[in-house]
């Protein structure tokens, strides 16, 4: 049984994004990211699973909430971190404390984005994270 919903914004999309986002926010975030022509895979934050990461699919970017329980957080973070081509991980939160930001970076994440984010803010964060992913791949890291 799959616990995630796939929304294909365009069939020829190259950029793949895993989003751990509540159901009520999915439409808005899909709208915000639509200009990127990305392939969006949504996962429920109340029961994140490794299903999306078991299909040998490459995600350039993963967008994760800071509000996951410790167990769910480390389980999902660990499964993403073990991928051959680990996505650039963006964590979203209501506020970006130094502790959160430094914890995300120390754990191998890309950045923290603060809610509510504008269309331009989320698109820029995703594009910069995707660029970081591509640079890491081209450098063999």
Q: Biggest β-sheet: count, sense, barrel?
A: 6 strands, mixed
Give the name of the CATH superfamily.
Answer: Response regulator
- SSE sequence, one letter per element: EEHEEHEHEH
How many distinct domains?
1
Instruction: Report the structural category.
Output: alpha/beta
The CATH architecture designation is 3-Layer(aba) Sandwich
Overall outline: globular
Estimated radius of gyration? 14 Å
Calculate the mean pLDDT score and round it.
Answer: 83
Strand composition percent: 15-25%
Counted by DSSP, the helix tally is 4
Low-confidence blocks of residues: 1-13
DSSP, total strands? 6
User: What share of residues is helical?
Assistant: 25-40%
Sheet with most strands: strand arrangement? 1-3-2-4-5-6
Overview of this protein structure:
This protein is 37% helix and 21% strand. The chain is α/β, with parallel strands linked by helices. It has one domain: Response regulator (Rossmann fold, 3-Layer(aba) Sandwich). A 6-stranded mixed β-sheet has the order 1-3-2-4-5-6, with helices on both faces. It is globular and about 35 Å long. The termini are far apart.
